[in-house]
Each structure stands twice: as C-alpha cells, then as structure tokens.
Specification:
It is built from 5 helices and 4 strands. It is α+β, with helices and mostly antiparallel strands. The chain has a 4-stranded antiparallel sheet with strand order 1-2-3-4. β1 and β2 form a beta hairpin. The relative contact order is 0.13.
Length: 180
C-alpha cells in the first residue's frame, strides 16, 4: 500500500512538473507571436491604424489608434483603443474596447464592441493588423442587424445629418483623453 501511495505521489509530482514548463512555453509562444505581430504591423505601413504594447514589461496590454475611413462620417477623426491579449492568444480573441468616446451602432457607451470576429467568429489566423483593419472597416459599414447602440443604428439608417451631429457631440480628440 505504501508503495502505491508513493507511486501515486510520484506520478502526481511528474504531472505537475510537466504542467509548469507547458505554461511557461505557452506564455513564451504568446510573447513570440505578439512580438512578431508588432513587427509585421510596424513594417506594413498601413495608413490609419497603429498599435503597440503599453510597456516593454507586458506585451499583453496594447494601445492603438484607428483613423476614420475616407467617405464615412468618421473621416478625419482618430480613435484610441485598448487591447488585452489573453494567455491563450491566438486561440482566444483579445478583448478590445474604444477608449475614445464613440457613437456607433456596434459600440456601446462604455466602448465595448460588437464584432463577430472578436466573439464567435474568432480564428487563430487573425492578428492585430486584421483586427485593426476590421475595426476601421466597421466604422464605415456598421452591422445594424446587431446594434449595441440602437439610437445610433436608427440615426445611421434614417438621418445621417443627425448621426453626424451625435457623433461629433461625443467625439474627443486623442490629446484630450490624457493617459489611462
């Protein structure tokens, strides 16, 4: 009986030892992935989008900006976003919210975003660049079938002049936001 307990304890110990390196490896792979995505984003030079880690010590917290697309009510405006990457990224979507006040059918007043690729349509093939481009596209092409802000959705569909007025009433330039 004693040897069975010793074997069980020994087996448990070896399982715990195997778990620890896997967690460290997972963390390392997330860090490597985010470093790679940062380099890809910096090298792409795509106008109107940017993102980078808030600090060198935590690659899982990023800040970014999205410029409103030309030909939309958001043209000429720039919005600040916050991105938090989970420990199992890219297998789970990052949490992204608008820090800048936002008037949009798919963004609530707290900055939460309703975008399928950040929820049930997430795939590990997405990266920071594709997320930023999708958010930028969403500004000009809201999904009014699934609004978080019903009033904005109604204005978008029925009164673009009132929509633009509401948008500008909520807008704050990034410099006005200060540091979070």
């Amino acid at each position: 009986m004693e040897s069975q307990n010793a074997q069980a304890a020994s087996g448990y110990s070896s399982l715990k030892m195997q778990d620890t390196p896997a967690t460290a490896t997972d963390s390392h792979s997330v860090t490597k992935r985010l470093q790679s995505e940062l380099m890809q984003l910096m090298m792409s030079g795509i106008p109107g989008i940017s993102a980078f880690p808030v600090s060198d010590s935590n690659l899982c917290q990023w800040t970014g900006t999205i410029a409103g697309p030309d030909g939309t009510p958001y043209e000429g405006l720039t919005y600040k976003i916050a991105m938090t990457f989970p420990a199992n990224y890219p297998y789970r979507a990052p949490v992204i919210r608008f820090v800048s006040p936002m008037w949009h059918p798919n963004v609530d007043m707290s900055g939460n975003i309703c975008l399928d690729i950040l929820k049930d349509k997430w795939s590990a093939i997405y990266n920071v660049q594709t997320i930023l481009l999708s958010l930028q596209s969403l500004l000009g092409e809201p999904n009014n079938a699934s609004p978080l802000n019903a009033q904005a959705a109604d204005q978008w569909d029925n009164n673009k002049t009132e929509y633009k007025r509401s948008l500008m009433a909520h807008y704050k330039d990034i410099e006005e936001l200060g540091e979070d």
